[in-house]
Amino acid sequence: MARPAVLIIDESDLFRDYLKNRLLRAGLAVEVAINGLDGLSKMRKEPPELIIMDYHLSRKTAQELLQEKAKNPNTADIPVMLTAHKLDKNRLLDLLPFNIKKIFMKPLKLDIFLQTVAEVTGVRFDMDKTPCIVEAHVNDNILFIELAMGLNRDKIDLLRFKIKELIDLYSIQKPKVILMLSDMELSFVDGANLELLLNTIIAAASAKSRSFKILTLSGFVQEFVAGRAEYAGVEVVKSLEYAIDGLIAEAATAADLPEDKAAIISEKVLNSSGAKRSETVTMRFDTEQARAQTSPASLNDLGRDLEIAAVDDDFVIQELIKTTFASLNAKVSTFNNGRVFLEATEQRSFDLVFLDLRMPQVNGFEVLSNLHARDLQIPIIVLSAITQREAVVKAYRAGVKSYLVKPLKPQQILTKTLEILKANF
Predict the structure, then answer these.
(1) Which of 76, 143, 197, 375 has the most CB atoms less than 10 A away?
(2) d(CA 155, CA 158)
(3) Cβ(110)–Cβ(425) under 8 Å?
């Protein structure tokens, strides 16, 4: 009996690689296409039972591809699962005439996504149901990875691709990693999954042992790492002060650091059960064209629809952010203080916020607290003129994982924006 065939049309080689392997493991036959024109050719040559395609395609747009598909009696009835970073109502209406099974906005929720694949193809996907949150970001060329609640093998598998994407996006030559394990109790029964996690990070990041720090309160993790020769040199610590010591190239002494740093991290990061969390994994993949060099073109498929807020009392910073996004035709609204910005959020929504921490009237920390209380989930990049080490602590204390240290450069702004918004998972 022939296996159901799926055609994946996406310009992210990492996403194609992950999804192809995942569908093959489930018993499906899989073909991949690298752009719209390639997808049209392969769709005509071997019509599949299901097409998974991204809306943002080159060589032939998704609209053109769907129109060609509808004209061909051999392909017209093939169901389509469409993914997109953002679609306005007019574009959604344009898609109604086509056989779209479901539209998934990125970042994807993988369990729901695979459930739809299963419904169309009749295959079964075995998913690890362990509650787990995975986040990964780059700050100061250090890869910060946080896992909370538990160790989920499917999400660890996804993490491998996320690490590779971040290293390529930031062109990191010698990766340095801080792994934070929070809000979880681990024991010997978790040994296999912990080993998978550590091996995945080491292999994907190609990080040397001395450049890999684990921040955790778990005595089991300490014993597990110390008892294995392959992890010799990997440090397990309980304070971010020691985790970042030697990783951030900055001439700072211990006297320059906040005295309550260890307490802040232990309470706010590692013991995070009180924080509001959702069981999602954030993964971001850029297109092949963006891998060698980050450029404004990498955001062109997002720019025209982007609503960006620059919340900073420094006019120079406001103008820098406006100028950086001008070529993308993104709309940048500026606010001199947090109070005016919060008033604006009562009437408007934003796709991304650049937020200064030190402002008159209502500062950045008060803004973050207000947004959290109102359950407004807006991607935020903190802007700070304080030192790098202080920025790490203050950003994490406020619950923000991405920050930029002033003075800013346009390339830094665009790269961080790509990390936050170009998300597939």
Answers:
(1) 143
(2) 5
(3) yes
CA angle 167, 85, 130 (to 5 degrees): 65
* Backbone Cα Rg of the chain: 22
**Residue 376: what residue type?**
L
Task: Give Cβ neighbours of residue 330 (< 8 Å, ≥ 6 apart).
Answer: 299, 302, 303, 304, 306, 307, 308
Report d(CA 9, CA 52) in Å as an integer.
Answer: 6
The enclosing H or E element of 81 equals strand 80-84
- Matching residue, tokens 């005509």: 44
Domains (range + CATH), the chain:
5-121 (3.40.50.2300), 133-270 (3.30.750.24), 288-421 (3.40.50.2300)
In the numeric block, which tokens belong to residue 330?
């993104």
Count of H-run helices and E-run strands, the chain: 16, 15
- Segment 213-233 shows an average pLDDT of 94
- Find the helix or strand (DSSP H, E) in which 99 lies: none
| E strands, 258-330, in order | 307-311
Q: Which structure tokens are listed for 411?
A: 């390339």
The answer, as to whether pTM is greater than 0.85, is no
User: pLDDT tens, 21-80?
Assistant: 999 999 999 999 999 999 999 999 999 999 999 999 999 999 999 999 999 999 999 999
State the burial class of residue 64 (Cβ atoms within 10 Å of its Cβ: 0-12, 13-18, 19+): middle
